[in-house]
Amino acid sequence: MIVFAREPIFTENGRVFAYQLTFRDGIGNAFASSVAEHNLENSQTNKVSWTELLEGYQSIISVSFSQLLDDIPEDLTPEDTFFEIDTLEVNDDALINRILDLKKVGFRFVCSDKKRINDLTLKFVDYVKVSMNNVAPMDVSNLRSQTINPQLKIIVTDVQTHDNFDRCKPLMFDYYQGFFFLSRKDKPSKDLPASRLAMLDLISELAKPELNIMRIKSIFEHDATLSYLLMRFINNPMVNKSHQIKSIKHAITYLGEVMLRKFVAIVSLTHINEGNTVELLQVSLIRARFCELISSHKGDKQTALTSFLAGLFSLIDVILDRDIQELMQKVTLAPEIETALVDKKGELHNMIRLCIGLESAHWASTFASTAELSVSTEEAGDYFLQAIRWANDFSIPVSKDYPVTKVR
Fold first, then answer.
1. Which terminus of the chain, N or C, has less C-beta within 10 A?
2. Is residue 407 in some structural domain?
């Protein structure tokens, strides 16, 4: 079994353009000897479905030249797949003809600046990656002028903070790769809007042993957007295959307490994320489901909902751009969730840390966390894949904003 990560690549306005996929051998502490050789092979032998993993998004996959000359997996669709290759050092007719054949059917090619990108390579690639750590405005201008392809797009990598993102914008890159969206901004706004405070108050209801159903019903009935999302969700075939539900009361009754708590949490988070990239919510959903699966795996089904909420709210400080301790004064969560989010301790924190390791390709952290949780790497990788599938499916009926696919 392999472990994998997917790093988002954004447009300037925060929409996901594509995911960079990375795979590693997850057995013991052994790493794959070559990312390029193992990306395609491991994904196929371990039954990773590209369509399930990406749900219509475009993907960038590293391949070696020898791998490129082999058969391409059938479920890699040309319109959604980019192959990242090394710099072409020699005019290899067989390799160049293979690249041209793949380009004819729609595959696109990416080259990174790990080595100097020469004129030969620029003849065949559609995208070039440059690290923000070693690029200047003149470099970007030279790259564009060097190629005969007027449509060449430039992806800047290693964008890890919002400050990085802001510094890259004036250089006129086409796309931005990195986890900057998971970090807080340097200058948060002074006050939280009343609408967000109301959603934090609604989230606090989830911490109570017994839900105040009448209060929740009243909140939904007096908020047109919440009502719309609830009815959209409850009448989606994935959730409800037999009943047409037309009232808020019927919808709340039909959901049941556990699903209602989840739905209220997700919709509340959707509201307070307004103005941020939707990818923040997608990552939150993945973490929520992952933590729930780990909790169930350990036999703690009674705490599965708590684990779900811990994962879901693990980015609430980033979403609201506030210190987590400040937020805990405005929202009430279960004590074990506060311990995980504020003190970075406890089993819930270990679950979140394991998911972060998988999503960001921090393999050392991944292996350490699996040991602490007594979960095998194979199981963790499988739960992560299940969480991605669930988030892709679940997000569609929850909000019209999920997911925005195939941004060009």
1. C
2. no
Helix (H, G, I), strand (E, B) or coil at 57: coil
- Is the Cα dihedral 267, 362, 7, 140 positive or negative? positive
In 65-107, which ranges are E strands? 81-85
What tokens appear for 375 in the block? 């979960």
User: Residue 268's domain spans which residues?
Assistant: 194-398
Average pLDDT of the segment spanning 152-179: 91
Helix/strand/coil for 186: coil
Pairing of strands 81-85, 16-25: unpaired
Taking only the tens place, the pLDDT of each residue in 13-71 is 888 999 998 775 543 333 333 333 444 444 444 455 555 566 667 889 888 888 888 88
Confidence of residue 408 (pLDDT cuts 50, 70, 90): very low
Domain-located, residue 189: no
Q: Quick check: 36 and 182 in contact, CB under 8 A?
A: no
Q: Long-range contacts for 263-267 (Cβ within 8 Å, ≥24 apart)? A: 263/230, 263/233, 263/398, 264/202, 264/203, 264/205, 264/206, 264/216, 265/203, 265/206, 265/308, 265/309, 265/312, 265/313, 266/312, 266/398, 267/226, 267/229, 267/230, 267/398, 267/399
Helix (H) or strand (E) holding 130: strand 127-131
pLDDT greater than 90 at residue 234 = no
One-letter amino acid at 316 equals I
Query: What per-residue confidence (pLDDT) applies to 30?
Result: 30
> Is the pLDDT score of 310 beyond 90?
yes
**Would 408 be classed as within a structural domain?**
no
Q: Domain for residue 406, yes or no?
A: no
Element (H, E) at 8: strand 2-10
For residue 39, give the nearest of 48, 30, 27 by alpha carbon: 48
Beta bridge partners of 111: 85, 128
* Range with top average pLDDT, 135-149, 224-238, 264-278: 264-278
| DSSP string for residues in 236-255 | STTT-SS----SHHHHHHHH
**Closest CA relative to residue 7, chosen from 19, 17, 24:** 19
Q: How far is CA 314 from the centre of its chain?
A: 14
Asked which of 162, 182, 202 is the last residue of a domain, the reply is: 182
Cβ contacts of 52 within 8 Å, gap of 6 or more: 385, 388, 389, 392
For the chain, give the longest Cα–Cα distance. 72
Question: Six-digit token pair at 216?
Answer: 């929740």
Report how far residue 39's alpha carbon sits from residue 360's, in angstroms, rounded to the nearest whole number. 16
Q: Are residues 275 and 383 in the same domain?
A: yes
